Amino acid sequence: MGKKASKRNTFNYNADRKKLQKKMINKYRPRIECAQIRKAWDIKKSAKRNMQEMGLTFGTKGLLPITSKAKDEPVAQVVKPYVVREMEEEASLPRKDTTTCSTDLIEYVHHMIREYGEDYKAMARDEKNYYQDTPKQIKRKVDLYKRCHAEEHAAFVASLRAQTSS
């Protein structure tokens, strides 16, 4: 048997080395999720330096001054205070509750309320209780429905009252 010929390293003339280098740098650079920090970030500075200029801390080391050495160090100036201000404004905005119930759960709760009202023990014995939920589990499901679809629940209860009174 003869010796196996090795493939020599050849230069690829079709590859743009500058573009490949940029692509590699961007691939390994972290993606900053916070829009305010991303906008104020300077890629020429270190992460610690960027965070100090924004008035934020990078890691927990040196956060609390424990020794007297901390008094000797100069206090870092906040160059970009608008970042923290914008983040606080965004955090103070109210968030809309987006939880919803499935149509199966809504039908299940409608059936249970229509048949038993607020008697959760009787609901637990119902034949439509396929998953054999306990009274507490059924109460949680009803409460979830009330919280997610408050107007719909109020209209449903009002229609039930109208049917029973007539």
From TrEMBL:
Alphabetical GO biological process terms: ribosomal large subunit biogenesis
Gene Ontology cellular-component terms listed: nucleolus
Family annotation (PANTHER family): HSPC111 PROTEIN-RELATED, NUCLEOLAR PROTEIN 16
Species, as recorded: Ameiurus melas
Keyword Nucleus belongs to the record: yes
Family designation: Belongs to the NOP16 family.
Cellular compartment(s): Nucleus, Nucleolus
Protein name listed in UniProt: Nucleolar protein 16
This protein's UniProt keywords: Nucleus
